[in-house]
Fold this sequence. Notes:
Layout: H1 2-6, H2 13-39, H3 42-85
Amino acid sequence: xxxxxxxxxxxxxxxxxxxxxxxxxxxxxxxxxxxxxxxxxxxxxxxxxxxxxxxxxxxxxxxxxxxxxxxxxxxxxxxxxxxxxx
Length: 86
């Protein structure tokens, strides 16, 4: 039994230190991952462009809606003029 504990078998002091070391490495890896995700600004530009495109599209739809009534009225006037001319 002493030989097994000294060689780092299950339940030995070497086994416990390896377990603690691997836990610390996993914790450090998780912290590094979270820090990289928090500091990464690469996707931020894509989101800004998408928001800008959505704003332009919204403005275009609002502008077209406002112009639709005027354009419809002009076509109606032209249609009336053509019918009266014949």
